[in-house]
Amino acid sequence: MKFRLLRIGMGGGINSIKEKYGNIEIYQQDRFSDKFDLNIRFNPDGLKDQEIKIGQRFYVYEIRKNNKVLHQIKYFIRLLKICKKYHINIIHSNTPFLYGLVPLIVSKLLRIPYCVSIHADYEKCESLQNNIIPKVMGSKRIIELIEKFVYKNAARILPIRESMVPTLIKKGAPEDKIRIFPHGVNLTEFEENIEETVFKNKFNMPPDKKIISMVGRFEKVNYIYDYIKIAELLSEQRNDWMIVMAGEGNEFTKVKNEVRDKKLDRFFLLTGFMTRDDVIALRKISYVNLCLMAGFSLIEACAAGRPVISYDVEWHYELVKDNLTGYLLREGNIRESAEKISYLFDHPVIAAELGKNAKGLAYKKHSSEKVAAIKENIYQELLSR
Hints:
The protein is an alpha/beta fold. It has 14 helices and 13 strands. Helix content is 42%, strand content 18%.
């Protein structure tokens, strides 16, 4: 039996995807093989009600987000209609919270296998930035109960990283239901040669500066202000470098102002939104990829073949192997971060070797072909129950 998948996505819908990536090609990671007869993405937190066809038998549905009870009822009814209309045989939610509970109820009513994937250490993210974990009537306790209920009743629980498993078990997730559901990257995109001079000219980067790159959202959860602190220390030692930060977010203007106030302008380039092609090029020309907190972007940083420096939080240890693919540093260790960057600047042979190893590990763990096979096997398990 072929898969007829309904996957519940989050994160603001198509508009947010376009803002972050410049297109909606990220959805293509769900199109694995001819084992899929139908693939539908449903975003319950979009900016408007819409339906978009993005490929052969591949659709994206959205409903406009609001915080009223009627929104959840509308969400429930729309899911029910889609499941019946398209004869869905797998429901996959990207969240264990309220937006994951509604499709679970639909799955029980229609007797469709339901799985839920976990995409972050939500408690860790909440400690760095409030409002990561949603509330119901101002209460996180209700959300905690919903999360446990979802884990108890899901057929499969799919953390995207091994590091999440112990926390899930502590929350009551049955261990026999847990499968790792990793991110995959089209690594062929990283094989193209980049003309460094041309790329630097495009963004007015000084041709003689070593590039330290950060790609991601300008949010507190990403330790965004630590980049400025690291730059302050590094600026006291040398001036042959520049930090290029690509992305947008709630803290963008504040970061820009703080860089100016600390008179670090000549060491920073804040590009705002950058297309995916340019992001890949930036990663490849970087001397160091600085990923203090990263998810999908950490895979891309490693795939670019340059050394990576990260904090030892969440899942980073799975790709950032100390002295092998880069440096894994204690959370908030500003001084050592600056020292390691400077060390790599002065030891290009070691930097090249670490980058080569990082690329190899990314290919081994996260090639789109390998990951697609893992995901298809999990979906097949659901249909075979």
